[in-house]
Amino acid sequence: MHRSISALTHGIIDYLMVLILVIGPGVAGFRGRQAALCYVLAAVHFALTFFTRFPLGVLKQVGFPIHGAIELMVGFLMIVFPWIASFARGVLSRNFFIAIGALIVLIWFLTDYRGLRKVS
Prior knowledge:
Radius of gyration: 14 Å
Largest sheet: 2 strands, parallel
Strand order of the largest sheet: 1-2
Distance between the termini: 19 Å
Order of helices and strands: HHEEHH
Structural class: mainly alpha
Number of domains: 1
């Protein structure tokens, strides 16, 4: 598999993902527990990115492959979370969680976590 997303590009995507998680509930039209979960995920995602050892990380404590493993788990969890947390009937929030989870998994598959490419 060709992993075409560099560490630098992944960092940009991560910070954009934080914004999506913060504004997503308002744009998608849901609130309550589901929105609160998005805000918590945004904070966790920001912290993970901030502490990752890659071009856009600040404190560089977490290895990039570990960062990727955490994101992959979160991506799959987001896909099933509407059923685990009993909000699958909320179409807007359910679809948002599934879409963002699938996007995170796709980004994981396309990212070069081992640094085999030069940072672009």
